[in-house]
Write a structure and sequence with these properties.
alpha/beta, Peroxisomal Thiolase, Chain A, domain 1, 10 helices, 31% helix, Beta-ketoacyl synthase N-terminal-like domain-containing protein, transferase
Amino acid sequence: MTGHAPPAVRPVVTGVGVLSAAGTGLGPLAEATAHGKAAFTAVDRFDVSARRTTRAALLPEPLPLATAVLAAVDQACRQAGLPTGPAAAGAPGGSGGPALPVLLALHSDLRTRAVATAVAGGVSAGWGAAGVTRVYTGACVAAGTAVADAAASVAAGRHRRVLVAAGHLVEPGVFAAFDAGRALARDGELRPFSAGRTGTLLGDAAAAVVVEAEPAAARRGAPVLARLAGWGRAGDAHHVCRPEPEGDGAARAIAAALARAGVEPPDIGYVNANGTGSPLADRAEASALRRVFGAHLARLPVSSSKAVHGHALEASALLELAVTITALRDGRLPVNAGWLGPDPELGLDLVLDGPRAARPRHALTLNSAFGGANTALLVAAP
């Protein structure tokens, strides 16, 4: 990983917006994940009577996907202090106007174009952007890939700020496919890294972050919520849906993120793991962590916030980045909910029973996808 080095321009996060099953905004999400309050409930928006699993984490108030994404964008841009309306395009220190890239992660289906078009119209009218620059449909690492691209663009000086947004709603087609593939938890609980885990559960989410060059944020007095200190991506090319058993790709993605940030494994104080609750995937991820962190893994706090908000597929990485940022801000590491007992094969220091008080300088948030894609985002306290 000698080709990676800390960026000359440091990318920072100046705004975060989320809608999740916990509610609207960072506050409800932070409380739910800190205390392990799982948000799963019976699915009532479509018929699940023929399914093995009937539970998911749903938004309290159902919204069209584009509406939910734009609500998250509104939160993030307002927190970042960006001016609103079409005039924002030319406002001093504003959103960046036509040059402002908008990176959008969505599930690939027949409605993707319509959702992207609606989001494009919303960001243009509300924040003076030219529209959606790129749509990411790379399964469960889509939003993580978008954040990595945003950070790289800012670090290289190509853009002073980038807006990243993502959304996923639990819908009948994907639910049926996951259920038919026996990927969903039979007991209706998502239990990452736990003995007796039987699979994942899906969740609604819309999320957005403003990624900005640190000097640009300082010039306009914008709040710095966290730094994107490093990022890494790697592929396994092992199987269409099964993880590589030793976690090779995930380990390489983590190592790349550490190298880019210029930090060593002992510098990491928390991992928000991919942790889907799949017996095979959790085992592979634990193996990846062991390969990178070695003896340090015994005292490295790990949890998966999916146990609370569910697996939001293409939006997962952005939602979990928001959780990780709030954990660093609040000094409360999220609980690994759904715990039944230890899996002796894993050997992780899981956050159990209640939020763990800690203020680590650096944390990782990890995601993996079908097809063997892996992303690692390294977040640093401001």
